[in-house]
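## Example record

The block below lists the input lines for one assembly entry, exactly as stored, with component labels intact.
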Amino acid sequence: MAAKGVKLFGMWASPFALRVEWALKLKGVEYEYVNEDLSNKSEELLRYNPVTKKVPVLVHDGKELAESLVIVEYVDETWKDGYPIMPKDPYERAQARFWAKYAEDKCLPAFFAVYFTTGEAQMKALQETKESLKSLEKALEGKKFFGGETIGYLDVVVGWFPFWVRIVEEIAGIDIVNGEDLPLMNAWFQRFLDVEMVKKSLPPKDKVYELNRARREKLFSGQP
Amino acid sequence: MAAKGVKLFGMWASPFALRVEWALKLKGVEYEYVNEDLSNKSEELLRYNPVTKKVPVLVHDGKELAESLVIVEYVDETWKDGYPIMPKDPYERAQARFWAKYAEDKCLPAFFAVYFTTGEAQMKALQETKESLKSLEKALEGKKFFGGETIGYLDVVVGWFPFWVRIVEEIAGIDIVNGEDLPLMNAWFQRFLDVEMVKKSLPPKDKVYELNRARREKLFSGQP
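Predicted structure tokens for the full assembly:
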């Protein structure tokens, strides 16, 4: 018989695994966390997610799920009497899903490119990141959080930006989000990081800083 | 006051607009279709979807929605007493969303690359397309359709493959899906194309063939 309970396969510095942790914490669901070594993935992870082989993977009562956004919706639908993550109204829900897809397709690759490039390519990526965040900012108009008065689906999806963007700004020595160009986003960054549940769940900043600094250094060390 | 009713901004040969048409037809929702000239988009489309500027866009009682997968879920949730598109069970729903994302992220770009490349690059893309469809085939095991006995969300999402793959096979003169390598997928291709609603909604094959053949020719005419 399949084991009961909830098990999350993540990696301590994975923003995508963190989304699932946030969803579970918002619902008050107890879970076991398995920290994967991504350079030497466990047999269990590969058995549970043979298709993409990526974290996060959630195993609930023996049934496995992959893809962070899919898992977040599953958590919301399964523990449906708990904290509401998705908006109740179908139109609001569609808007949240639209912006989540936009953030994944536009903001994320542009931001990663800022981090993994230098010179002209980096300036182009920086411009794209700012423009895409400016679009995303529309979803914050008149609201404290993307979810309204409290955090919701879209906050969970893009909530890693505030933490990681600040770290990348430090490592790369550039300014990505400030109160002048992106006032709503900048204010939300701080507001989100001040949420008690978020504060308690973030990995140690110095460790994430060091991991990412080393990754970037390694990447560029092989380049002319 | 916002206009009542349902209006779909699409383009007759867009597989993504077709997804939305299928969802609306499954639900029996009446709609007005606006065929966009993608080289000269209407002001209305740009006003309704200023962020990505793409079709499909659905306008329901004056409220606009973009992104085909988001719209399909919205249609299912809004006309919830009609034909069930998403699976009822949250786990099944998560699986359908997982495979939809996989198809978008892996199968689609590989298939497009088959079409827009030649020589070695094309052979590599062909291999990737076949491998990704082999993975996707798992979602068909023991079932007539991805949705089970009848078509559901994942059929709507990947239902354009059967029609377009056959056309690209003809244009590019290569074999992508056959009964030997991909028996379940191959059988589903025919089964999906035989669904009456699908048959009636597909654009004229010769026009799609000609459009795509011309596009490919134009692309390669500028190359050495």
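The mean pLDDT of chain B is 95. The beta strands of chain B are 6-10, 32-35, 57-60, 63-66.
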